Amino acid sequence: MIALALRDLRLAIRAGGGFGLGLAFFLIVV
Questions:
Q1: Nearest 5°: CA angle at 24, between 19 and 10?
Q2: Is the pTM for the entire model greater than 0.85?
């Protein structure tokens, strides 16, 4: 689950280029 979250996080950061979006997603998962 953590690996999947990290994968989606990397995709979100790479596609959108928004660190805040990735951080928000990480906070939601945790």
A1: 50
A2: no
